[in-house]
Predict the 3D structure of the following.
Amino acid sequence: MAAQRLPLEFDGVVSGNASFNLTRVAANQVWSLQTVNRIAPRDPQGRPLLHEAFTDAQLKGVADAVLQQCDALDGLRDGMVNDFKACKFDPRSQVCKAGEADKACLTSAQADGLRAIFGGARNSRGESLYGNFTYDTGIATPAWRSMHLGSATSPPANATLGRDTLREFSVTPADTTLDPLKFDFDRDMPRTTETAAINDAVATLLTTFAGRGGKMIVYHGLSDQAMATGALTDWYDRLSPRREEGPQDWARLFLIPGMTHCAGGQSTDQFDMLAAIQDWVEKSRAPDRVVASGRAFPGITRPLCPYPKVAHYDGGDASNASSFSCR
């Protein structure tokens, strides 16, 4: 927001796991809530048991399957999916086969539900209203369960935070009686446009900020349980001024495998973007890579690469970031 609306005030901006399109985030949370509600089992009174829509074993099974298919795409099987765009995982690959007793497999309804959740909110014409999530290890974290499923004693955040943000902030006028399960993604989305115009930092024409030498670093966890990677990459791909290919020379986006919202997950979530922006602004050293570590992987460092580049293993010490290149 600062770079877009106060372009003369800042020389450098760092924005982490940005909820830059909050009205769409809230709508997408309700999209997930509606999806989980459709597939959740019912109690004797017919009420949905949202927390039982997926078991922990099923979510771990999906995470394990993602790693099995996509972990080694960067040249090394290390518990992290760097080359996320090359990962073509489909939850339908996890549907239980006839007679299968594996508690980690999915029903067809569950697989389709995950496809809907990870594909993001859409209207009846199939047009994206938000952006897609990346398949990553985050689906097996408590953060993902808390956001989308909740527990036996606590509803999912999508049913509280998402619901209340949508009906008391996003729609104009506020509608405290709005039923999130009846929100219509054709009819009701226009009700969010006035708040979006005030609140959402979705501008892509940043010629004033860039033209006076401003620099911006945006970073985001590929396992963010609430903010979709695809929404952010779609925005970054439309930024202007821009070079046709590769990282931009004034704005760079770093995506962190396995990291949930702002930190956590099976990730290298410890890094210093403040030093990176300072070097870029004050010494004209563009961040071609930022070295990261994390408690989930003791003794291991990895390079975070400016999108659309990703880290690839070149050989050598697999625990050291110097054994990887961004390409």
